[in-house]
Amino acid sequence: MKEIAMTDAGAADRGRYGPGQAVELHLDSVNKRFGAVVAAADCSLQIRRGEIVALLGPSGCGKSTLLNIIAGFESPDSGEVVLRERTITRVPANRRGTAMVFQRYALFPHLTVAANIAYGLRAQGVNRKLADERVGEMISLLKLDGLERRYPAQLSGGQSQRVAVARALAIRPAVMLLDEAFSALDKNLREETQLELSLLLRRLQITTILVTHDQREAFTLADRIAVMERGRIVQVGTAEEVYHAPASPFVMSFLGTTNAIPATVGAAGEGWSELFTAGGARFRVASHAPTPAGCAVTVFVRAEHLAVSGQPTAVHADKPGRIELVTFLGATQRTVVESGGVQLLCDRMGGASSGGHLKQGDPAYLDFDPSFCVVVAR
Amino acid sequence: MTTASKFGVGDKWRTQVSFWCWMIPALAILLPMFVAPLARLARNSFNQDDPVGMMRPTWVLDNYVTALTDPFYSAVFGNTLMVAGGVAAFCVLTAYPFAYFLVGFAGRSRKILLWCVYMPLFVSVIMRVFGWMVFIADTGIVNRLLIGTGLVDSPLHLMYEVPGMLLGIVHRYLPLAILPMINAMSKIDPLVLRASGNLGESGVGTFARVVIPLSLPGALAGFQLVLAGVLSDFVIPILMGSTKFRMLAPVVYEEALTNASWALSAALAMVMLAIVAVILVGTNLLVRYLSPWVRA
What we know:
Number of domains of chain B: 1
Structural class of chain B: mainly alpha
Oligomer: heterodimer
Largest interface: A-B, 32 and 21 residues
Mean pLDDT of chain B: 91
Low-confidence stretches of chain A: 1-20
CATH architecture of chain B: Orthogonal Bundle
Strand order of the largest sheet of chain A: 6-7-8-3-9-10
Number of domains of chain A: 2
């Protein structure tokens, strides 16, 4: 059983890096409320030079607010934002050296592609010759050749997005901020663009913070992921860490497809407890905190860790469930099983493995490795 | 062959018929009440005025020669164009900060401010002129206050003079400059202003490089509306203006009804129509030149 404690992810992150690794951006206990809504609660985060960090969470979790605080569009109620060892909490947005790619790109409709890219350079007083050079560089870097004289209204979604990226990169920002920068693109284009940008940002060593509610996007682009829930950073780690060692049921159910199975503690001993579910599954999990027998718990198990079988299994020998639906999802096959009054989702690659031969209405037994389960007391 | 339109699909012939059916009410008003009189006016402008009767039907350019060369009429055209251009420019410049504030910062007072813009449009222009009389007449509130406080010894002659007339005209036409400007400003995506700040531009820089160019088409639309309105305004110059500073509409009226010079007044009106047309086409071309993105 995984350790479940609502750890202060921010505290763990503080002081994580030694002097050798330059901290580019430092959020120190940032708080922000909008009336009764807590948009950011004690958010702390350190980002190294050249690192790409994703703020991942459902809509309304405060990730955009945090990004706006970094950009200077919002000011925090308390806490500090430190960029390259300079506290910028009260510095106006136009003197911060951050560059944002907005969800709807926010290109200047009255300026051509080239003028859009040159906008920030002119604002900074870069001389025309150097600015032209830089614009040319950006045009070829983002494959915008031939579009220099077009207006934003004449661009496709993908082209607009590349112009927005070029415009932000042109000013050589200390930190690049991506606010749901891919959500307006079609799936195929989105994945292609994510990959390209990921490679580009790494090549240019640009420190980047991206805000997204899309796990795939965060995993594709980011070195580290900060998962947010109701204004709080609940876990910071690599994609593998947050996926395989979620700090809370929230993180687990937000990443991937997760089943929540109500269960009861049947017996408990030193370092273990035995659980049984209404559907007849009975299994033993490792447990560090002693849980008394009869205690109600919820077992979280990912859809890809749950299998179905026509025969009794080691964890489920009694009271078989029933297959309600078998769905073909392309790369995976999803089976919906009713067991003990709850609907459970089981995902299998391809569909040729266990349970693949089962059809709707068949009795089914659950099969899973209890060590993949996360158990929380209810 | 079928064609699709917003309200349905049909074959070409049916689409044609339904097009004309829908146009009939508008055409029934426009043709006899606007196009026909205008055509008649154009025809009249080539006639010759008869001091005894009405007009002699001829095809001569005498009236145009008079309208364009007589110093009296040149002064009238000059006065009218000067007032119209000046008032239009003034209204647009006043509308800019007002619309910017209303769209960008007004918040809850937005509705009240909008109401203040619309309100005068609902009140008859005659009533508004009477309102101004109470204020700016020689014995009006303004002069009584000025004399009472000892700022002036004798009343300022505002009413029936150019300043009073300008006040009335600005008051009448300012909403026509403000409304298209509000429309243009509302269309500016606030995110674009954010992007400007994010890229390092200051507030003033953002106003100059983003707000002004994006609202320019609205500003020119307001300019056109005010200009066209003032050029042909009759009521305010008649009720608030001076006989020493003549404006075109009252002059045309006098020529037609007092002097019975129908042909000459028609020529004056046609010249003004041509001037308005040239100015409107010119400003439209200016928009195309200054804001090529609008057509993109």
